[in-house]
Amino acid sequence: MALHLLEDWCKGMTIDPKNGLLVTGVSEEFDEGSIEPILRTSTKYLSECKMRGRMFVREEGAFAVLCELPSAVDPLQVPSTITVEDVVWRVIATGSQPSPAPASNVEFLKKMTAFLGKEGKTLADMPGLLGLDPGVPHLEPAPSPDEWVKALGKALEKVVPPHPESSPYRKLRLFSGGPTPIPGEEAFEPWLEHTTEMLQEWAVPDAEKRRRLVECLRGPALDVIRTLKLSNPGVKVKDCLEALDHAFGRTEGLEDVYCKFLNARQQKGEKVSTYIQRLEKLLQRAIMRGAVAVEQMDRTRLAQIVRGIQYQNPILLHLRLRERQDNPPSYSQLIKEVREEEERQAAGEVWEAQPHQATGSTSIRMPKALMVTPQEELTQQVQVLTQKE
Fold first, then answer.
1. Is 81 left (phi over 0), alpha (psi -120 to 50) or beta?
2. For labelling, which of 116, 165, 181, 292 has a CA lying 20 to 30 Å from the CA of 130?
3. Can you tell me the distance from the alpha carbon of 285 to that of 230, in angstroms, rounded to the nearest whole number?
4. Where is the Paraneoplastic antigen Ma-like C-terminal domain (predicted)?
5. How far is CA 134 from CA 125, 157, 319, in A?
């Protein structure tokens, strides 16, 4: 109906329908002198529009306004709605198509407009989302339909989150907390560690994580979460895990957990990577208890590693761990670097200890003057830094 009104009105005003716009839903409180300035300031594209008339539409109980643009209307540039003082104005344009679009296309455009509206976008934003600049003339041939589909798919991937049901996931391990373990149930501490890691990896809303957590609970453990949801239906997964920890975990206070983390030191003969892995379990428990904020996790880990590694360990110097405390690496990056450095040092020790057989019975060894132990290398680098200072 609105489109027919636009076309008939344009003909009566001797306006090319391709240059016309119809704005509906305008309430009586907006007079003719204020409507045109509002439209001109709503978007840059409508900055040159001119109001040609106003008509009261009885079916809608509001006014419809006819506007004219200097050139043919580009539907991609026109916003579908304009919000003015909590009142929504609808904008209708005939566009430059010689014939009405098929019903399937119209339905698709309606769905696309509704989807973009939820994301705070309009059809006018589509050229930018598709990597096209409407202000620059096209010097290359227009994209083919397949290229448009691919570009549109990439744009939707950026704004559409994955649906929880479309992302496959492994079910969590069972836990009941009852006096008699059910088949397949494991102890609480390993279960909590595994569950926490899995929930952190899943890129789904918190409500979906809570649903998956409830799926794996039985008996007393399930009763704990049910009671928690009665008082707070939207309880977060972090609070659910904390409640289970209080009910079935070790009876350790916040201070006790944090002290265990701070007192963890590298043991004699223990590899640095093994020490970091042992320390990570203590850190995760401190985070669960609220002793360490998640935002400070990497910084806290690195600070304790610097304190806990044995004195004069070459890895501490080679990876420059002290200098990186302002920009600490993540756990995965840190353990990767440490293990690579351990393998490099182990390969160097094998090279020094193993003689290399030459032709005949003569054995060739690396000159002793060129052989440098890790401790000597550490001492040399410290001397260089001291001379520079």
1. beta
2. 165
3. 27
4. 175-335
5. 10, 22, 50
Residue 69's nearest CA partner among 102, 103, 104, 94 is 94
In this predicted model, what pLDDT tens digit does every residue of 189-198 receive, in sequence order? 888 888 887 8
Neighbours of 297 (CB within 10 A): 18
Convert the pLDDT of each residue in 315-347 to its tens digit: 777 788 888 888 888 888 888 988 998 888 888
Report the CATH number of the 2-100 domain.
3.30.70.330
What predicted TM-score, i.e. pTM, was given to this entire model? 0.38
Q: What is the distance between the alpha carbons of residues 212 and 172, in angstroms, rounded to a whole number?
A: 7
CATH architecture of 164-249: Orthogonal Bundle (1.10)
DSSP letter at 88 equals E
Torsions phi, psi for 26 (to 5 deg): -85, 120
Which long-range contacts (C-beta less than 8 Å, at least 24 apart) are formed by 260-268? 261/285, 261/286, 261/291, 261/292, 261/304, 262/304, 264/304, 264/308, 265/307, 265/308, 265/310, 266/308, 266/309, 266/310, 266/313, 268/310
Distance from chain centroid for Cα 254: 30
